[in-house]
Design goal:
Order of helices and strands: EHHEHEHEHEHEEEHHEEHEHHEH
Strand content: 5-15%
Low-confidence stretches: none
Oligomer: single chain
Number of helices: 12
Bound molecules: pyridoxal-5'-phosphate
Structural class: alpha/beta
Largest sheet: 7 strands, mixed
Length: 375
């Protein structure tokens, strides 16, 4: 048996999306900028996809810029907005995705000032501190909607209100929350989305950018995406993303399976603890610490049984540093090292989840017997 419980890292592409995408590779392969009928055909479909995604977040189609994914959208939003003006202060949080943290770090090297807002034990950003950090030189606030490691949902409506009050642009990375939590971009300046986290293809994403926002593109090239992101449009990718977005996640089922997993693990395995807020949390995420053992060992043993999970985020799991998110929440090094992220999708099943828990129980027992840490 197999169990794929790593849907925050990537997801199975929906059959409906694959079926639609085939057309644009096999027969409707015209360049969407070409003036002949095949270009027109592709352009019409691209604009249909743009409209579907715009409607899903209550934006206008012209505010949707297709990109190569979440990483590019984060880079484009932060650099594009900061570089468009003279202000040089950025506010972010300590638990952002590397695409945001590294971009801020690089801008710091280029002369910007960066304030990192801390989170509480639950992994939620401190709004009061955020408000106090804003000053006359603040060019941008960038705070994620839902965290990729612990699934906590940040109060972005409140943050947007504050930013509007102080007239500071607000960007949010909504890659993990998109389709799972309703979003209205009315008060948001820029937002990042990615297709492969919602059962769409890899290598395509969206930057929502509010009309009229001063913006400096990163790339030079043609006039694609209203000049904000040049490069021949990935029509198949955009269509695949739109189909995936309109399928929706089936939140109730995901939440039920996730709660079943948390309940069984915490009850049946001693020395376990759920990380992150219980209530303000994405429906699909369970991040659990196992006392006295390393998350990496658990992950490798689960993998040998056909079960996929993550330690920290996939982007940082190649390094042996404990998760920056768990450390920011105040976990000790050994607690952060012993954590596993389980993430469910609309295609997960109860037998799959139960198989994973049963194997996990055996693995934890064996590892604790041989681990020097647990003595
Ligand atoms: C996956 C992810 C990204 C990066 O998206 P890609 O499309 O893989 O580049 C950015 N932010 C968050 C929160 C993510 O989970």
């Amino acid at each position: 048996m197999k169990a794929y419980l790593d849907n925050s890292a990537s997801t199975m592409v929906a059959k409906e999306a694959i079926q639609e995408m085939r057309k644009y590779n096999e027969s409707m392969y015209g360049n969407a900028s070409s003036l002949h009928y095949m270009g027109e055909e592709a352009r019409v479909e691209l604009e249909k996809a743009r409209k579907v995604i715009a409607e899903s977040i209550k934006a206008k189609p012209k505010e949707i810029i297709f990109t190569s994914g979440g990483t590019e959208s984060d880079n484009l939003a932060i650099r594009g907005i900061v570089k468009a003006g003279k202000k040089k202060h950025i506010i972010t949080s300590t638990i952002e995705h590397p695409a945001v943290l590294e971009t801020c770090k690089n801008l710091k090297k280029e002369g910007c000032k960066v304030s990192y807002i801390k989170v509480n034990k639950e992994g939620i950003v401190d709004i009061k501190k955020l408000k106090r950090a804003i000053n006359k030189n603040t060019a941008l606030v960038t705070i994620m909607h839902a965290n990729n490691e612990i699934g906590t949902i940040q109060p972005i409506e409140e943050i947007a209100e504050i930013c509007n009050e102080y007239k500071v642009p607000f960007h949010t990375d909504a890659v993990q929350s998109y389709t799972k939590v309703p979003i209205n971009v009315e008060k948001i300046t820029a937002m990042t989305l990615s297709a492969h986290k919602i059962h769409g293809p890899k290598g395509v994403g969206v930057l929502y950018l509010k009309q009229g926002t001063p913006f400096k593109p990163l790339f030079s090239g043609g006039h694609h995406e209203s000049g904000k992101r040049p490069g021949t449009e990935n029509v198949a990718g955009a269509v695949g993303m739109a189909v995936a977005a309109s399928l929706g996640p089936n939140v109730k089922k995901i939440e039920m399976l996730r709660d079943h997993l948390i309940k069984r693990v915490l009850k049946e395995i001693p020395g376990t603890m759920l990380n992150g807020s219980k209530d303000s949390r994405l429906c699909n995420n369970a991040n659990i610490s196992f006392k006295g053992i390393e998350g990496e060992s658990i992950m490798v043993h689960l993998s040998m049984k056909g079960i996929c999970v993550s330690t920290g985020s996939a982007c940082s799991s190649m390094s042996l540093e404990p998760s920056h998110v768990l450390l920011a929440m105040g976990l000790k090094h050994e607690e952060a090292h012993g954590s596993i992220r389980f993430s469910i999708s609309r295609y997960s099943t109860k037998p799959e989840v139960d198989y994973a828990i049963n194997e996990l129980k055996k693995i934890v027992k064996t590892l604790r017997r041989i681990s020097p840490l647990s003595k």
